[in-house]
Each structure stands twice: as structure tokens, then as C-alpha cells.
TrEMBL record:
Record GO cellular component, one term: cytosol
Protein name (database record): KLLA0E09593p
GO MF: carbohydrate binding; peptide-N4-(N-acetyl-beta-glucosaminyl)asparagine amidase activity
Species: Kluyveromyces lactis (strain ATCC 8585 / CBS 2359 / DSM 70799 / NBRC 1267 / NRRL Y-1140 / WM37)
Pfam families, sorted: Glyco_hydro_92 (PF07971), Glyco_hydro_92N (PF17678)
Annotated Glycosyl hydrolase family 92 N-terminal domain residues: 80-326
InterPro entries: 6-hairpin_glycosidase_sf, GH-type_carb-bd, GH92_a_mannosidase_put, GH92_N, Glyco_hydro_92, PNGase
Domain (Glycosyl hydrolase family) ranges: 336-817
Protein keywords: Signal
């Protein structure tokens, strides 16, 4: 707490950001951006449970670790990334991982007052273990949290009380940075850990033991994350086995779990663990009872738990353990052991410092070295937001190519798509610029899943496809890669066939209690209606969401069909993309008097009439599986047609009305916030002012969102990270442009850094971004665009194409202005109509 107070006291007089907010709103007011400016800034909520980087938004307060400054001096990004960023509310994973790595090693807690531990971590509650598999930033229900160890002290392994779940409170808040984590338990044991792609390393420090205490490590094979809040989606332990080596130095086995958000099928993960010294004794437990030592144990269905307690010599102070994991179906244990060897060379096997250094090098190589800037000349708050965002965009989906893939056909394999509904909008477009090597493999993996299983997934984890919230958004993800020339190794004919399956083949019915009218597993539920009627009726759940998204999905088919020279198909799908018009009701009205205009999307009954019952364009009622709209109001979904803006503008009637309606979506100009900024359906909406030549408003609005909705620290994210979708949104907002997913179009906003060089990007040449005159002589940030110059040519549009900047590289220069200018009023708007 004191840190924050002290810090603010020093900070305020020299701050850009606090001053800027008020000034900016004054400008908005004076210059007619808003009639009723509203200013509110919520400060970070301090939580005493966080040590470390809590409030580290100046990038100066690195946690003290055993490494001194050996890593900070080499990796300047280290001090900017707070691994607890977005953990509260954003469900961010806080442990150790490498970019897109399978192993995400982190603390698992129960009994948190803050609710379910989606990624294992909560700052409060009790620690039940440190495990090797997690998701990051997801909603739905907690996933994974398996293959764990928990250290404790007891007089002997067989004396440990296993009748209840063993857990410990922390002695002090966790300390961590990228690649390194430390948790101090109140039983006196400190756990430090680090991990690599498919294995992790534990280092335990035991206190000096008295009263006959012995160091004990519990390997609870059954351990996994539960959902207490949504028990219908909780994971369950199905079966497990474990075998201890005769020298008591290693163990191996596997665990099978079912349930979870994706679908009720099962998945199995194998493990191979090793200690740096042999145990002295071992006890086993099953169903809450300690058993005499058995070297081999297998659980049977219906059993609640099995595990092993390893007891070590009492003079053991430091104990290390190394665990590899594998999803390989046939030789899981063998592959897990091999993964360990691949990740850690023989002479570095138990070397935590080496492991941390190696993880940091991966992050540098795969991500941070691509961003070159002079951080000392930038606003530290912006740099902190940028680096934290970047980190969050390279955790998922996970690269399980090779022996981890569920089949062996040589194609890349990625899992943990959680979910494309969230990530197609800007996470994949970001990956398609900065990490195209992964981007191409992700596309190949989706196509390969289609080839083997019949459909591409929308959500997937534990090698099981499951849960489509709206459309088949893999279509848009593929189109985005296609049009941005992400071609390495991709068979686009097959890719189109996979999309064609989504568009034309009704997925098999699989019952889902959340909404049993049609399938939610993959493909497009209720496709028959789409094909026959050109919209989804209220006979099916999520009829508005599905209609809007199927339109966008079909537009994605048009993009790829056209690019492949399939003219007829391109025509068909372009026509079908216009189907959203079928649910536009020009007479639909809000009951809210603030919004006294007509014309919105509206669900239709099976007889074709617009549904009046339970309809208000500004409400989505339950906003969930059985409602007309999923996590978004009709008025939000109405904007999601970047491929048919001319029609939307016509429907709305005039540019002035279009502008008013956009203004009404955000609280920054009065009323309440209509859109949920922390959720995906409205990600593109702040940028739509480009279509009416009011780019200045986008700059103002995006700036307002960056300043007021995104913060630093654990509550830094305005909603679930959703596998990095939220951070990808922020990344683009800070860079100064935003992708229209599935097209080659970027819409402009004002960059927040003076200079940034994007370099060492696979297949994409270097790009330099300049924001001239970004700060006034008083250090106030200029948030408006005067003009934009790409490769020495002034832009005659308020948008640009991928090829203009990313094909040959070069520079994009923004000239900034203190006041909003109508710089784009005579410029060309983004394409509003498409043709074959
Ligand atoms: C092992 O984990 C299972 C599942 O989380 C739990 O029910 C059980 O109580 C744990 N056993 C011990 C001894 O902690
Ligand atoms: C994905 O993982 C495989 C197997 O480890 C590896 O060969 C490949 O290079 C990885 N992809 C990228 C882009 O790093
Ligand atoms: C769907 O669930 C409802 C009630 O929960 C039930 O009445 C109906 O028969 C179910 N329909 C199908 C197709 O399973
Ligand atoms: C919609 O459901 C009703 C009954 O619930 C049924 O009579 C009707 O045929 C269905 N309409 C369509 C278009 O499937």
C-alpha cells in the first residue's frame, strides 16, 4: 500500500498521463467532439496480496530475486512485464511459460474469495500445488491444473493426513517475473520454479527442521482445477496411475480428466518426474487413505484420488525436481521423459538460473526483440501497457506439434484455441504480422484438424473441439492469413475446402444442455435455416449472433474464393454475406428515450415476422447460450458488418446519424456505456468513424478507452484476456492502426509512442512507426492526427492496406496535432463495398 502512495507523490508533478486526461477532455469539449464531456479515471485497486510489480507501471519496481540484475541488464523488457497483470478479472495466467509453449507452470489455489481460479492463480486462498498445465485468460470454467507437486513437512510420509485436500496459505505474496516464480508457503517451504516448452523445474527450500520433521513432496495424481462457481462445467478426475522407480528418485504415470468447458470427453496427460536426490521413504494414498508403500498404483473409475508422498532426509535444505509432460497417446511417459531431455540439457537439468535464462531468451527471440524503441523517451505508462499486452498475446494457442499431436502426419498441431470467437478479431491479425511463422502453422493446424476430424474448431482444448458461441470464425482467421500472404506450407485449396465445409455441411447434432436446439461443437449450428431462409430464426438459440456472424464468415469465404480464382463461389459467398440485412428491421425502436431513432437488427420468428416479445435493441437479456444474442446487445451486433458498411450507412440514413449512433455507444460522450469494452463483439466499433470521415473521433475514443479502461496491475484488463485477444486490441490501439479481420484493411488511430521499429519478423520486412510532435513542450500528449505519410507519400485515405506497409516494409509517419482536425474529411473512406 505504502508503495503506491509514495509513488503517486513523486509521480504526479512530472506526469504526462494524469494531466493529459483532463486536458484532453477539455479539448474534446471545446472542439465539439463531445457535447457533454465526462471525466472519470479509476485508480488501480491495490491488493495487499500482491507484492512485486503491483503498481509497477513505471517499470522501476522489479521484485528482488536471487538473480540480482543479471537478467535485467540483458533483457530490458523484463522490468516492464508484470506477470500479475490482468490476473484479477482478466483471468490471466501468472506462472512461467515460453511463447506458445505447452507447459504453463503455475500455482493452483482453492478457497479464494475472488471466485474460481481459471488459470490456477488467485492472490488469496490456499495453495494446493504447483502444476504444469494451464490456460490463460479464458472464461467458461477453469481448465487443466494437472501434474502437480506440493511440499510439506511432517514426521513421516505415512503420517500425513490425506483424508482431506491438503493446502497451505502463503507466508507472503508471490514474487515473479517472466520465466521465474516464487511462492512462500506458511508451512515454511519456499517453492521457486521455472519452465520450458514441455517440462518444468521446481526448487524447494526447506527450513531447518526440528521436532523430527521431514521434507515431504506430495504428488497428487488426481489434482486438477475445479469450478465451484459453475459446477456443471467442472473438470473431473477419471483415472490415474503412478509408478515410482526402485531407487526412489523418479516417478511416472498419467492422469485422465473429463468435463470442463469444451465438452465432456476425456483427455490424458502423462508425466515423468525426477528428483535431484533419492527419497528415503515413500507412502501412497488412495481414496483419502494412506496405504503401505506400493511402487505401482492404478486408480479405478469412481475413485476420488491417488498419489504418492516422497519423504526425504531431514537435513535436506534444497531439493529440486524436474517434471516432463506429454499428451502422446501411445508412449506418453516415454515422450514426457524425452521432453525433459529436449528442454534441459544434461548439465543444466536442475539449474533454475539456466532455466530462467533460457525462458527469457525465448521471449526475447520470439517476441520482444521485434520491438525496438527508446523507452526513456516514451511515457512509462504507455510502455508498460504495451509490453504487458505483447506478453499476453504469445501464450495461446499452444504449439503441440510433433509427438504431442493426437495424430502423426507431419503437419503442425496447435491446441488450446480458447476461442476463435475471441481471437479472430485482432489476436490472429497481430500474429499474422509479427509472428507469421506461428501464424502459418496455426492455419495449417486448423486445416489438418478439419482433414482428420471433419471440421475446424472454434474452441478447443485437451485435443477436443467444442463450443461455438456464434459462427465458424476459423473462416475469418483463415481469410486473414490468406489475404496477408501468410502462405508458408499452407495448401489453400484444402483451406478453402475446410471453410466450405463450415459453410455448407450441417454439423452432427451433439446435445449441449446449455442450448440443445442445435450443435455447439463445431461448424455452424442451425445451418439448414441459414441455407434455406438466409437467417436464423428464433426457433434456434443465438439467432441474431449467428445470423451476423455467418454473414461475416461467408464474407471470409468470398475473400479466399476470389483469391483462388473461384469466381462463381466468390459471387455466391459475397451474396450470402449480405444476409445480415434479412434481420435488419427499419422500424425497430428502443424503449430507452435517449436513443430515439429506429432501425436495428432484430430476431425473426419462424413465420418470418420480427420477434416483439423480449426484444429491445439495447438489451440482450441473458446474453447467453439460449438468448437471441450472445454476450452483446442487438445494437452492438448491428455494427459488425465491416464488409457491408455502405448498406449499414444507408439503413442508418445519414452520416450525422451514423456518428450520433456511434457516440451513443460510449459513455465518454454522455449516457451510459452501451458497449462492453471488455468483450469482443464491439472490438472494431471505435474505429468505424473512419467510414464517415471522422477519424478524429476514433482517436479521441480509443485514447479514452486506453486511459480509462485499461490500467496496470492485476486489474489492468477491462475483461477476460481471452487468450490474449484483449491485449491484442490494446497493442494495435497503441501502435496506431487496427485490422478489419479477414480483409487487408487497417483503420487508423493515433499512435502512443514517438518511435517504434518492428523488426526481425518472420517473412515481414522491418517497419518504422513515427509519431512526430507526439508531445507538446509541456509534455502533454497530442492525440490527434494531422496527416499520415507512408514511405514518404502522404496518405490520401484514412486507412491503408496490408501491402502498402507490410509487403515491402518502410515507414509510417504520423504527424500529430493537439486538437482534433478534420484531416480526413476530403479523403477516401475504407472500402464499403466489395466485388468479385
Ligand atoms: C488430491 O486432489 C484431489 C482433486 O483435486 C482432491 O480431491 C484430493 O483431496 C487431493 N488429495 C490430497 C491428499 O490433497
Ligand atoms: C512448433 O513446435 C515444433 C515442435 O517443437 C517446432 O519444430 C516448431 O518450430 C514450432 N513452431 C514455431 C513457429 O516455432
Ligand atoms: C432440450 O431441453 C428442453 C428442456 O431443458 C427439453 O424440454 C427438450 O426436450 C430438449 N430438446 C432436445 C432436442 O433434447
Ligand atoms: C419452429 O418451431 C415450431 C414449433 O416450435 C415449428 O412448428 C416450426 O415448424 C419451426 N419452424 C421452422 C422454420 O423450423
Amino acid at each position: 500500500m505504502w508503495k503506491l502512495t509514495l509513488f503517486l507523490a513523486i509521480w504526479v508533478p512530472i506526469s504526462f498521463c494524469f494531466v493529459i486526461l483532463e486536458d484532453e477532455f477539455l479539448y474534446l469539449h471545446k472542439n465539439g467532439i463531445c457535447n457533454k464531456p465526462q471525466f472519470h479515471y479509476e485508480a488501480d485497486n491495490s491488493e495487499e496480496e500482491f507484492a512485486v510489480f503491483y503498481n509497477n507501471w513505471d517499470g522501476l519496481q522489479l521484485p528482488e530475486t536471487r538473480f540480482g540484475d543479471q537478467f535485467t541488464s540483458k533483457y530490458s523488457f523484463l522490468k516492464w512485464v508484470d506477470v500479475f497483470y490482468g490476473t484479477l478479472g482478466g483471468h490471466m495466467f501468472s506462472g512461467t511459460a515460453v511463447p506458445f509453449g505447452m507447459c504453463k507452470m503455475g500455482v493452483d489455489v482453492i478457497n479464494s474469495k475472488k471466485g474460481d481460479a481459471y488459470s490456477g492463480f488467485q492472490p488469496d486462498g490456499e495453495v494446493v500445488g504447483v502444476s504444469l498445465l494451464h490456460e490463460s485468460g479464458t472464461g467458461g470454467a477453469p481448465t487443466y491444473g494437472v501434474v502437480s507437486q506440493l511440499p510439506m513437512i511432517a514426521s513421516s510420509a505415512s503420517s500425513v493426513d490425506v483424508t482431506r485436500q491438503i493446502s497451505f496459505k502463503r507466508k507472503s505474496p508471490d514474487v515473479a517475473h517472466i520465466g521465474y516464480y516464487k511462492v512462500e508457503l506458511d508451512n515454511g517451504v519456499d517453492i521457486e520454479f521455472s519452465s520450458k516448452d514441455r517440462s518444468g523445474l521446481y526448487e524447494y527450500t526447506f527450513p531447518e527442521l526440528k521436532d523430527n520433521g521431514k521434507p515431504i513432496i506430495m504428488v497428487n495424481v488426481s489434482q486438477h482445477l475445479h469450478s465451484f462457481g459453475r459446477p456443471w462445467w467442472t473438470q473431473n478426475f477419471r483415472s490415474g496411475q503412478i509408478k515410482v522407480s526402485s531407487d526412489l528418485k523418479s516417478y511416472q504415470g498419467k492422469v485422465t480428466i473429463n468435463g470442463g468447458w469444451t465438452d465432456p470427453g476425456e483427455w490424458t496427460v502423462s508425466f515423468f518426474g525426477k528428483f535431484d536426490k533419492p527419497a528415503r521413504k515413500v507412502a501412497t494414498f488412495r481414496n483419502g487413505r494412506t496405504l503401505p508403500f506400493l511402487r505401482r498404483m492404478q486408480s479405478y473409475s469412481g475413485e476420488s484420488d491417488i498419489g504418492v508422498l516422497f519423504e526425504f532426509d531431514e537435513d535436506t535444505t534444497v531439493l529440486k525436481s524436474h517434471v516432463g509432460i506429454s499428451f502422446n497417446k501411445n508412449e506418453g511417459v516415454k515422450v514426457a521423459a524425452q521432453n525433459l531431455l529436449d528442454d534441459y540439457p544434461e548439465d543444466s537439468q536442475f539449474d533454475l538460473t539456466w532455466s530462467v535464462a533460457s525462458a527469457l531468451e525465448s521471449w526475447n527471440d520470439k517476441l520482444f526483440k521485434k520491438f525496438e524503441m527508446n523507452v526513456n523517451e516514451e511515457d512509462p505508462l504507455i510502455i508498460s501497457k504495451l509490453y504487458n499486452s505483447l506478453y499476453g498475446t504469445h501464450l495461446m494457442p499452444t504449439n503441440k506439434s510433433g509427438a504431442e499431436a493426437p495424430w502423426d502426419n507431419g503437419e503442425p498441431y496447435y491446441d488450446d484455441w480458447f476461442t476463435l470467437w475471441d481471437t479472430f478479431r485482432c489476436l490472429h491479425p497481430l500474429i499474422n504480422i509479427i509472428s507469421q511463422d506461428h501464424g502459418a502453422e496455426m492455419v495449417r493446424s486448423l486445416i489438418d484438424i478439419w482433414e482428420v476430424e471433419g471440421f475446424m474448431p472454434d474452441g478447443r482444448s485437451g485435443d477436443r473441439s467444442g463450443r461455438t458461441q456464434g459462427g465458424s470464425n476459423s473462416d475469418i482467421m483463415l481469410a486473414d492469413a490468406f489475404i496477408k500472404n501468410v502462405h508458408q506450407g499452407i495448401d489453400w485449396e484444402k483451406g478453402f475446402q475446410a471453410m466450405y465445409t463450415n459453410a455448407e455441411v450441417e454439423p452432427p447434432y451433439i446435445e449441449d444442455p446449455m442450448a440443445n436446439d442445435s450443435t455447439n461443437k463445431f461448424g455452424r449450428g442451425a445451418l439448414k435455416e441459414w441455407l434455406e431462409l438466409g437467417y436464423i430464426t428464433r426457433n434456434y438459440s443465438r439467432s441474431v449472433t449467428r445470423t451476423m456472424e455467418y454473414s461475416y464468415n461467408d464474407f471470409a469465404l468470398y475473400i479466399v474464393a476470389k483469391g483462388l480464382g473461384k469466381k462463381d463461389l466468390a459471387k455466391t459467398y459475397l451474396e450470402r454475406s449480405k444476409n445480415w440485412r434479412n434481420i435488419w428491421n427499419p422500424n425497430a425502436k428502443s424503449v430507452n428515450i435517449h436513443y430515439d431513432y429506429t432501425g436495428f437488427v432484430q430476431p425473426r420468428n419462424s413465420d418470418g415476422t420480427f420477434a416483439q416479445h423480449r426484444y429491445d435493441p439495447f438489451t440482450c437479456f441473458g446474453c447467453y447460450w439460449r438468448d437471441d444474442e450472445y454476450e452483446g446487445k442487438p445494437v452492438e451486433y448491428g455494427w459488425t458488418v465491416p464488409f457491408d458498411m455502405k448498406t449499414l450507412l444507408e439503413y442508418i440514413g445519414s452520416k450525422a446519424m451514423f456518428e450520433k449512433r456511434l457516440d451513443d455507444m460510449y459513455a465518454f460522450c454522455g449516457h451510459e456505456n452501451v458497449v462492453d469494452i471488455g468483450n469482443e463483439p464491439s472490438f472494431l466499433t471505435p474505429y468505424l468513424y473512419a467510414y464517415i470521415n471522422r477519424q478524429d473521433k476514433t482517436s479521441a475514443l480509443v485514447d479514452w478507452i486506453i486511459n480509462t479502461k485499461f490500467k496496470t496491475g492485476p486489474r489492468g484488463l477491462p475483461g477476460n484476456s481471452d487468450a490474449g485477444a484483449m491485449q491484442a486490441w490494446l497493442t494495435f490501439a497503441l501502435l496506431g492502426f487496427y485490422p478489419v479481420a479477414g480483409t487487408d484493411i487497417y483503420l487508423l488511430t493515433s499512435p502512443k509512442v514517438n518511435y517504434l521499429k518492428l523488426k526481425s519478423m518472420p517473412n515481414v520486412p522491418d517497419i518504422e512507426i513515427f509519431a512526430h510532435n507526439l508531445y507538446s513542450e509541456f509534455g502533454v500528449r497530442n492525440n490527434f492526427i494531422e496527416k499520415v505519410v507512408i514511405n514518404d507519400k502522404e496518405l490520401d485515405k484514412n486507412w491503408f492496406r496490408h501491402s502498402e506497409l507490410f509487403e515491402h516494409g518502410g515507414t509510417i509517419e504520423y504527424y500529430m496535432s493537439e486538437k482534433p482536425l478534420d484531416w480526413d474529411s476530403d479523403k477516401e473512406c475504407p472500402p464499403q463495398e466489395f466485388s468479385v
